[in-house]
Amino acid sequence: MPVMDKLFTLNHFGFLSVTGKDALKFLQGYTTCDLNELDSSRSLVGAICNIQGRMVANFRVAPYEGGFLLRLNAKLIPVVEAFLKKYIVFSKAKLENLSSSLFCYGSLEAEPNYPKNKLQFIEDQGNWIICVDDLSHRFEIWSNKQRSSNDDLQVWFKKEIDSGYAWVDEQSESEYLPQTFNLHNLEGISFEKGCYLGQEIVARMQFRGKLKKTLYSGESQGTFQIGDMLLTEDGKSVGKIVAASEFHFLAVIQAKSETNLQLRLSDRAEVNVRDLASITPE
Q1: Superfamily of domain 210-275
Q2: Can you spell out the DSSP letters for the chain?
Q3: What is the pLDDT of residues 152-171, one digit of tens each?
């Protein structure tokens, strides 16, 4: 494993497994991604939506014990468990919160045994090693052992922001369509798989609609955090920050907003924003 200063503790993430004879059949009906595309050398991002097509959570998923292992915001695991338990009673599948026995880390340097291609993973002595960004050598390590690591996550968060990744948390749960978080450009939505909960609204937005809110990257020297609003000079709220590092963020901004106008934070610090609608996996 990497040395301490090259390994980041991503303890804001937790793990939920779905296993059993009907794991694929069950979970396929609740995910935007096509789980049939998973194999021993690939992970996927995706989302679980409610009937209105809003994301209850988004996740990264890998095969696990004949079923699936989902990495998502740790605070949303009880929410997702309660949401899926309403339906899983009719299937030969089970949910299990594995957050107390699995730990998520990030690495910005490749070790010799790390996978070479994006969205690939290897299971090595209780570790899932997943290449989530091939060009910048960004990896997630899902481990059954706690490791010495760096708790300063600003560099890691900046890399995620640069790649256009935001993760649903307790503030944004059931608020946004998956396209609003750019999942359609991050291979997180399949428009060819069968039906899943919320699929009709997600597909209609893709082929017949127009997003009212889209994802932007931004930067500011002001003070901000996830959940803070972006304001026009006259104080009108036009967006919300959904991912943040020290000076950079991702924000969902109303599509009709005049984004060429100078936006600001609540402390009146100016921000600069850039449309991320065209971001694709690196």
Answers
A1: Aminomethyltransferase beta-barrel domains (2.40.30.110)
A2: ---GGGEEE-TTEEEEEEESTTHHHHHHTT-SS-GGG-BTTB-EEEEEE-TTS-EEEEEEEEEETTEEEEEEEGGGHHHHHHHHHHHHTTSS-EEEE-TTT-EEEEESS--TTS-SSTT-EEEETTEEEEEEETTTTEEEEEESS----B---HHHHHHHHHHT-----TTTTTTS-GGGGTGGGTT---SSS---TTHHHHHHHHHT---SEEEEEEE-SS---TTPEEE-TT--EEEEEEEE-SSEEEEEEETTS-TTSPEE-TT--EEEEEE-TT----
A3: 899 999 999 999 999 999 99
